[in-house]
Structures are given as structure tokens and as C-alpha cells.
Design brief:
Helix content is 31%, strand content 21%. It contains 18 helices and 22 strands. The protein folds into 3 domains: 10-200, Heat Shock Protein 90; 206-328, Ribosomal Protein S5, domain 2; 438-601, MutL, C-terminal domain, regulatory subdomain (Ribosomal Protein S8, Chain: A, domain 1, 2-Layer Sandwich), CATH 3.30.1370. The model is unreliable at 417-428 (pLDDT under 50). The protein has an 8-stranded mixed beta sheet. Strands 9-10-13-11-12 form a 5-stranded mixed beta sheet. The protein has a 4-stranded antiparallel beta sheet with strand order 16-17-18-22. Strand 1 and strand 2 (55-60) form a beta hairpin. By secondary structure, the chain is an alpha+beta fold. The chain has helices spanning 10-21, 25-38, 67-72, 100-106, 156-161, 165-182, 205-213, 262-271, 311-328, 370-375, 425-428, 452-470, 488-496, 498-504, 530-543, 549-564, 574-584, 605-611; strands at residues 43-49, 55-60, 109-115, 122-128, 131-138, 143-149, 187-192, 195-200, 221-227, 232-238, 250-254, 257-259, 284-289, 295-296, 307-308, 431-434, 438-443, 446-451, 475-485, 507-511, 515-522, 600-604.
């Protein structure tokens, strides 16, 4: 039998490795940014075109590479980070496997320009599909500029697998955030299609968080700091009132490396137990420093999962540290039975300066002199003596009653033994609520049970779609404009949806970098709910960005209907219940919600008869 096992060619092996390392443009951005950090760069610029599909360029001012290193870095398993197996358990750098650049070069057109501080001229290398097509000497500044063009040009199926540009851009921004938050001492810039997205100067951790997520984030942060022999914990958690239903703004860093850890996330959630609702998630930016020998990073291709040597101790330390910080800054309620509240300054007097009391003394006063006590004592306020109160009514009985009131009889109210009036609506009531969640109504064949939240979603969804299409929405003007703050990427999403939102009833008087000013809202929407509605809209568009305008309008109507619909647990009066049912059956599809969930269920009388048989 002939031999059938053979070694793979290098270009095939590189493409197979690229399947693990490079999943989308964001994967390339992550690898290149981490390489720039390892090179000791203090200023890094990321340039993108078409969400990285056409161009991903990273420019840094790091140490650069020599001619030999520049050629060797594109070979498989070529790395400067480790030399033997023991180094895998003492890692202080980002990359170490030596497969990133080789994998990227196998599926894209790559151009490298680099120069060290000791060299007079730099090196330029051009690679297409793992093959070096050109190498020459060039004049470039110290550092490295790596350009990745036409990603997946030789794998059409993989290129077709990529999502739309907004979706891929969001993934790139997520990776950019993770690297930028891990290294606040490094200046970062991000340019997409010629426009600046981020300009992050060198700063401390708090300033870096504020520069990324907006100025309003500063007031939400609660410092966390603790140092033990096992772990050093630093960073911030968001105040409980800013917890969200989505899992955004949750970052764990171990030795300046972003990780995902459901186990440690549970520790943070346990620290917030009793302070936030069960369906909400706390936000946090937590940095853990541990001994590199006590962790194993090489357990996942993307290196976002870490195995701890003593994870139970880290869990307990993290949970207790966050609870201590919440209590220390008076975020969590504290019971102190020994505190005397009688010495607390009232709130209305806390900002007033004290005024010295004035005392006036009558030096001529003598308590042993009777006459002086009666004559000399004077009061600052004197009361005028008036006639007795009976004199005010003298002569009233002689006044004649007006002619129009003569013969007018007043019927006294009927005296009954009931405390309340008899409820006449109970007899005519045809609907009722069950657990303030379902509306039950009788029909000819039996009963009909309607989910009030899903039913209202269907009603609002069709109304909003009609308003967006016909462009005749009803808007209620606000007495004072409402100013809301969002991060720059979220403002960009809302700005792209401004026209459709105005067709639904929103009126925007101003949209700037991080601020929205709203002067009108759709009819029936409370001013206090506007921010939550827009946050839910941004969250939905981040998770699913449609391509066509019709699907964009559809997703917008679904998101707004979900946020604006009456919630389960809301008490509805009988008239409101009947009105909801009438509106539901006026819809085109009353039986299903916009997300294809069942809205109503009918129960036949025969089913009841079988139960009591």
C-alpha cells in the first residue's frame, strides 16, 4: 500500500492557521495593535477603509525591526517572545505564538515599512498570499507601518461570510476599546473612511474611560482598589442605578490582557446582589494583577480565556473588594444603630452659613417692681383691639333673600350604611386582568387570554411603521428641551436614524459629539422614558444592523415598540383593557407579536367541561 500521509505546503498550512487566528477584520486589528504595544509604542494610529475589508493600517512609533527581522516575522512560529516551554508560564507580552503575521499574509495583500532607531534607512516588504513579491530600502520614520489590503481576497467564500460594514465596524471598535483601555499610557487614534472616530491622548485610567464612553461616565464610576498576596485589584464599577439590561461596558483585564470570564462576572454580580434588578447587569472596568506563573493563557486561540491556579480565592477577593467599595462610597445602604441622627444637619441648611443670634435686653427692667412690670414692659408687636366677633353678623338677618333664590329647596344627601358608592361598572365588566400581565375576555366559544405587553407591541409596531411610511406622526412638544448624553458611536447610530425617528414623532433640536437635545417626543411617550427608549434602540442596532432601508425601518419600529409598550405588571382599568383589545383586532396580524411570539390564546368551553367531568 502506497504512503498516503504527507506534509502540507506552507501556504496551505498558513491558510488553515488563518481560519483560527483571523475570523474577521477585527481579528487583524487586534493582532496588529497588540504587536504595536509589544514593540513599546507610545502613539498608535489605526486607519480603516470599508470596515477593514479594503484596508487595515496600523502605524506605531515602536522600536521597529531590522531587515532580517522584517523578513522573518512573516514565517510561521517565528517569535521574539518565547525561547523555551517554560516561557509560556511567564508571559508579560501580548502575542507569543508567532502565527498572526503569517496567517494574515496568507489571505491578504500585506505591506510592511519599518525602521529601528539605530538604522539610517528602513525596509519595505510586499507580500501577496504568503509570497514575498518585493523587498527594498526606503526612508521612513522610526517604528512600523503595516498595511493589510483586500482581506480574504483569495478565499471568496470567507469574504462573503463577512457581515455588513456597520457590523464589522462595531466589532473593530470593540477590539479597539479593549486594547485602549488596557493601556491608558499609550495615545491611540482611529480613522475610518477619512473621518476621525477616536482621538485618545495619553492619560490615566479614569480619563481613558471618560474619553471613550463620554463625559457623563465620570459621575457613574466608583473606584475599586485592593492589594493582597494573591491578586491586586484596581479599576472602577458603575453605580447600581446605571446597570443596564445589556452586557455592555463590562471589561476584565488580567496583567493588561483583556479576558472573558463568566466565573469572575458572577463574582461582580454577587457583589451587586440586592442593589440592582435581577435582569440588569452591572458595568465594570476591573484590572487584576497576578503572578504570571499562576495563570495559563495558552488555552484558547484568541487568548481571551485564562485558567487561574486559585480561582476560588480570586472570586472571594473580587466580591468582597467590590462590596467594600460600594459601602465605602455610600453606594450600598448601611445600617448603623449607634449613630445619633439628632446631630445631623438638615439638608436645606447644609449649604447655608451660620448666623449669630442677636439678644436684646431691657436694662431698666426690675421684676420686683409691680408698676414697672405693668407699665414699662412693651412688646414689639401690638394687636389692634377690634369689636367682638358677634358684631360682624349684626343686621344680616334683616337682609332680604334674592328673588331668584326664593322657593329654592335643597335636597339632603341620602344617608346610607355604605362607606363607598356602589360600583356600577362591575356588573358590566367584560374583561379582567390576571397577575397584571394577561387580559382575559369572554367569547362565544369560551375564554380568550391576551398577553398585554406583546399585544401593545403589535399595536405600536404597525402604528410606527405607518408613521415612518406616511410621515405624518403626532409629536408632543416639551416645555423644556431634554438633553441626553451618549458615547460617540451611539450618537453616530442615532444620527443615521434621525430622519426615521423624526417621522415617528421625535424632534431633535441639536445633535453634537456626545449630546442629543430633544424638543419633542411621540404622543403618549413619557419624558422620563425617552433615554431608556433610545438606549434600547441603540442596543438593538448594535446587535443587528440591517442593510436595506426597509429592514432598517422594520427594525426601528420593532425596537421602539418593544421599549414603548406597556410592561407586564402594569395595572389597567377595565376601559383601558377593552380599548387595547379593540386596537389589537384592528391590526393586520393580531395573533403574533412583531418578533413572532404568540399574543393571544383561546380556551374552549369543552376544555372546561372535561376538567369538571
Amino acid at each position: 500500500m502506497a504512503d498516503i500521509i504527507q506534509l502540507l505546503p506552507d501556504h496551505v498550512a498558513n491558510q488553515i492557521a488563518a481560519g483560527e487566528v483571523v475570523q474577521r477584520p477585527a481579528s487583524v486589528v487586534k493582532e496588529l495593535l497588540e504587536n504595536a504595544i509589544d514593540a513599546g509604542a507610545t502613539d498608535i494610529t489605526l486607519v480603516l477603509k470599508d470596515a477593514g475589508k479594503t484596508l487595515i493600517q496600523v502605524i506605531d512609533n515602536g522600536i521597529g525591526m531590522s531587515v532580517t527581522d522584517a523578513r522573518l516575522c512573516f514565517e510561521r512560529h517565528a517569535t521574539s517572545k518565547i525561547k523555551n516551554a517554560e516561557d509560556l508560564f511567564n508571559l508579560n507580552t501580548k502575542g507569543f505564538r508567532g502565527e498572526a503575521l503569517a496567517s494574515i499574509a496568507a489571505i491578504a495583500h500585506v505591506e510592511l515599512k519599518t525602521k529601528t532607531a539605530a538604522s539610517e534607512i528602513g525596509t519595505k516588504i510586499t507580500i501577496e498570499g504568503s509570497e514575498v513579491t518585493a523587498q527594498e530600502a526606503v526612508v521612513v520614520p522610526k517604528g512600523t507601518m503595516l498595511s493589510v489590503k483586500n482581506l480574504f481576497y483569495n478565499i471568496p467564500a470567507r469574504r462573503n461570510f463577512l457581515k455588513s460594514n456597520p457590523v464589522e465596524t462595531r466589532h473593530i471598535i470593540d477590539e479597539f476599546h479593549r486594547v485602549a483601555l488596557a493601556h491608558p499610557q499609550v495615545a491611540f487614534s482611529m480613522i475610518h473612511n477619512g473621518s476621525d472616530v477616536f482621538q485618545l491622548p495619553e492619560s490615566n485610567l479614569r480619563q481613558r474611560i471618560v474619553n471613550i464612553f463620554g463625559s457623563k461616565t465620570n459621575e457613574k464610576l466608583v473606584p475599586v482598589s485592593e492589594e493582597t498576596d494573591i491578586v491586586k485589584v484596581q479599576g472602577f464599577v458603575l453605580k447600581p442605578e446605571f446597570a443596564k439590561k445589556s452586557r455592555g461596558e463590562q471589561f476584565f483585564f488580567v496583567n493588561d490582557r483583556f479576558i472573558k470570564s463568566p466565573y469572575l462576572h458572577h463574582a461582580v454580580a454577587a457583589a451587586f446582589e440586592g442593589l440592582i434588578k435581577n435582569e440588569n447587569h452591572p458595568g465594570y472596568f476591573l484590572y487584576l494583577e497576578v503572578d504570571p506563573h499562576s495563570i495559563d493563557i495558552n488555552i484558547h486561540p484568541t487568548k481571551t480565556e485564562i485558567k487561574f491556579e486559585d480561582e476560588h480565592a480570586i472570586y472571594a477577593m473580587l466580591r468582597s473588594t467590590i462590596k467594600h467599595s460600594l459601602g465605602q462610597f455610600s453606594i450600598a445602604p448601611v445600617l448603623d444603630f449607634e449613630k445619633d441622627t439628632g446631630f445631623d444637619t438638615p439638608y436645606e441648611y447644609s449649604k447655608k452659613s451660620p448666623v449669630a443670634p442677636s439678644v436684646e435686653v431691657d436694662k431698666n427692667f426690675n421684676p420686683f417692681q409691680k408698676e414697672a412690670r405693668q407699665k414699662d414692659i412693651s412688646f414689639p408687636y401690638k394687636r389692634e383691639r377690634v369689636a367682638s366677633w358677634e358684631s360682624m353678623y349684626v343686621g344680616l338677618e334683616d337682609e332680604a333673600m334674592p328673588s331668584e333664590l326664593k322657593g329654592f329647596e335643597v335636597e339632603s344627601e341620602e344617608v346610607t350604611g355604605r362607606l363607598f358608592e356602589k360600583d356600577t361598572e362591575v356588573a358590566s365588566k367584560v374583561t379582567f386582568q390576571v397577575q397584571n400581565k394577561y387580559i382575559v375576555s369572554s367569547i362565544k366559544s369560551g375564554l380568550m387570554v391576551i398577553h398585554q405587553h406583546l399585544a401593545h407591541q403589535r399595536i405600536l409596531y404597525e402604528e410606527l411603521l405607518k408613521s415612518i411610511t406616511v410621515q405624518e406622526a403626532v409629536s408632543q412638544q416639551l416645555l423644556f428641551p431634554l438633553s441626553l448624553h451618549f458615547s460617540k458611536p451611539h450618537v453616530a447610530i442615532l444620527k443615521s436614524l434621525q430622519e426615521q425617528l423624526e417621522h415617528t414623532g421625535f424632534v431633535f433640536s441639536e445633535i453634537e459629539n456626545e449630546t442629543l437635545e430633544i424638543s419633542g417626543v411621540p404622543s403618549g411617550v413619557l419624558e422620563s422614558n425617552v433615554e431608556g427608549i433610545l438606549q434600547g434602540l441603540v442596543r438593538d442596532f448594535e446587535n443587528e444592523v440591517p442593510d436595506a432601508s426597509f429592514s432598517q425601518n422594520d427594525l426601528l419600529a420593532k425596537s421602539l415598540a418593544k421599549s414603548m409598550a406597556i410592561k407586564s405588571g402594569t395595572v389597567l382599568e377595565p376601559k383601558a383593557q377593552e380599548h387595547l383589545i379593540h386596537q389589537l383586532f384592528a391590526c393586520k396580524e393580531p395573533s403574533v407579536s412583531p418578533t413572532n411570539k404568540l399574543v393571544l390564546v383561546t380556551m374552549d368551553v369543552n376544555d372546561f367541561d372535561k376538567k369538571f367531568a
